[in-house]
From TrEMBL:
Signal peptide boundaries: none
PANTHER family (alphabetical): KINESIN-LIKE PROTEIN KIF11, KINESIN-LIKE PROTEIN KIF3C
InterPro entries: KIF11-like, Kinesin_motor_dom, Kinesin_motor_dom_sf, P-loop_NTPase
Family to which the UniProt record says this protein belongs: Belongs to the TRAFAC class myosin-kinesin ATPase superfamily. Kinesin family.
GO CC terms: mitotic spindle; nucleus; spindle microtubule
Keywords: ATP-binding, Cytoplasm, Cytoskeleton, Motor protein, Nucleotide-binding
Protein name per the record: Kinesin family member 3A
Keyword match Cytoplasm: yes
Species this protein is from: Mustela putorius furo
Binding site for ATP: G122, Q123, T124, G125, T126, G127, K128, T129
Gene3D superfamilies: Kinesin motor domain
């Protein structure tokens, strides 16, 4: 039987709970080490070809609320759909902002000996490799 995981608010970690360790909790552990997955979305601006063909932006980004609203660009009366994420970046966002708010904390944790993963997913040609580099 697997022991119940320790509560992250108490500074525990799942590895220690799975191993059934009874050692005291290390007070120097970073509380954010329990934040396993964060979903961050970066919306790209229209490219020159899309602008020349008079395409409209289909999404609006509210960085303060962490929401992206998808609007139908045709003349349908379908209401827009809103999605909430941990962090969102609009088309005007800069590489440095994306790095500082998303990658830097993970890199800092890796340099301190913690495991870290950044998984980039999205449409082909939208800048994932560029952003990761």
């Amino acid at each position: 039987a697997n022991p119940a995981p320790l509560d992250c608010a108490q500074g525990g970690d799942l590895r220690r709970a799975q191993e059934g360790a009874t050692m005291p909790i290390n007070k120097s552990e970073k509380p954010e080490s329990c934040d396993n997955v964060k979903v961050v979305v970066r919306c790209r601006p229209l490219n020159e070809r899309e602008k020349s063909m008079c395409y409209k932006q289909a999404v609006s980004v509210d960085e303060m609320r962490g929401t992206i609203t998808v609007h139908k660009t045709d003349s349908s009366n379908e209401p827009p759909k809103t999605f909430t994420f941990d962090t969102v970046f609009g088309p005007e966002s800069k590489q440095l902002d994306v790095y500082n708010l998303t990658a830097r904390p993970i890199i800092d944790s890796v340099l301190e000996g913690y495991n870290g993963t950044i998984f980039a997913y999205g449409q082909t040609g939208t800048g994932k490799t560029f952003t990761m580099e």
